[in-house]
Amino acid sequence: MRADDFLSLPYTTIVARAVTTHGATCFIALHPEFPGCLAQGDSPEAAKADLLEATKLYIQDLLEKGDEVPKPTPQPTPPPRPVVGANALGAIVVRKEKGNDFAGWSGYQPLGLATVDMNEMLAAAS
Known about the structure:
Shape: globular
Radius of gyration: 17 Å
Distance between the termini: 42 Å
CATH class: Alpha Beta
CATH architecture: 2-Layer Sandwich
CATH topology: Double Stranded RNA Binding Domain
Oligomer: single chain
Number of helices: 3
Number of strands: 3
Helix content: 25-40%
Strand order of the largest sheet: 1-2-3
Largest sheet: 3 strands, antiparallel
Low-confidence stretches: 83-116
């Protein structure tokens, strides 16, 4: 298979809002299947576009070295959306697999990003 063939597979994409060391808002995009491969952009779309190029280069490098290219991680079916009233509180469901955290990823570097508080991120997104 070629790199472009792998890019057509359903890899997990995570996009998160972050704050640079200068206080500017940015977006980080990554595929958990490719440790250390991530991209940053001024918008989610820009981060995902840069991630596509970074992932292609990452896969090409793996293929040139003769290394195995990771397969997409199967995603569970999300639970049905609850009926939410005007005064109801929302809930977040996070799937965490043993050993699958950012700090444990080989080659992961935070790139000088500030820690993002989930409450602040959700408040900013709403």
